[in-house]
Amino acid sequence: MHWISMLLAAAAVEYGVNAAATLRFSCSQLVVERLDPARNGTFKRVNTFGNELGFTGANGGQTVYYLSSGKVTAFKPGFRMTVGDPNFRTAAQLNAKYKYMDFTCLQSSMTRGGATTSFPTKACPAGIMVSIRFPTCWDGKNLDSPNHQDHVAYPNGNSCPSTHPVTVPQVFYETYWDTRPFNNQNDWPTDGSQPFVWSFGDKTGYGIHGDYVFGWKGDALQRAMDNNCNSDLFSNSINCATLKTQSLAEANKCTKKVSVTEPLDGWLTELPGGMLVT
User: Within a domain: residue 230?
Assistant: First the structure.
């Protein structure tokens, strides 16, 4: 599993979540993770687009949330975790171990509901939204673990298990994939199956996974959670005096140099890195 490097733009926007604190960020850059295979065996990158609920001007297509429903302990420097398994290819594998990771076939930007744990099987008029929610319970000791997962756990109902007693913020990723250019089902595989595949070779969607590395400065995240920072998307007002925010235009200037020279655009004869489709 590789660590995804993301650059985030600070903006706090409330998104209809019943939470004491809701921080919402746009991502100005994201590693390519999804491609569309053509009938002739070639592949083309699927782009992302900005969240239409407040981030249409963002260069990236991912929205990152930090949520709390009460008192939480912010992550510590050096903390990292992953969720999901890129090797999974069945619903049974995914559902036995993980929760709250799914795909939404968008009929419009406001579509919520009808989520699946595999790639949608029909063309989606407004693209596909992928949602990944991380566990919210920490063992209170380890900043990481050999598999990057054992030091965190899901709660039992509203309470964390005794093995992982510390409640941490809910980290939640939403990524908007612009699958609209590929909606002509006459171009889809001749067997009628959906055409998309993750760049690590998964054509089912069950290998969905996310990586998180904590990078906040000082106690900024703890202060934001303690002060119940959130804002109202529709009135464009922000209630987060403890944090500095920036405009999307400023955030879009924050980029990272490309470190991989391998071709990513145009039609490719194989997945990046020579990954096999399984």
Answer: yes
Residue type present at position 225: M
Residue 255, domain member (yes or no):
no
Per DSSP, 227 falls in state: T
Helix (H/G/I), strand (E/B), else coil: 176: strand
Contact 30, 60 (CB under 8 A): yes
Give the Cα separation of 56 and 59 in Å (integer).
8
What pTM does this model have? 0.85
| Domain extent at residue 222 | 7-242
Asked whether the beta carbons of 137 and 154 are under 8 A apart, the reply is yes
Q: What are 19's two structure tokens?
A: 């939470």
| pLDDT digits 0-9 by tens, 50-99 | 776 667 777 777 888 899 888 999 999 999 999 999 999 999 999 999 99
DSSP 117-168: SS--SS--TT-EEEEEE---EE-SS-S--TTS-TTEE--BTTB--TTS-EE-
User: Residue 206 domain-assigned?
Assistant: yes
| Position 201 in a domain | yes
The total of structural domains in the chain comes to 1
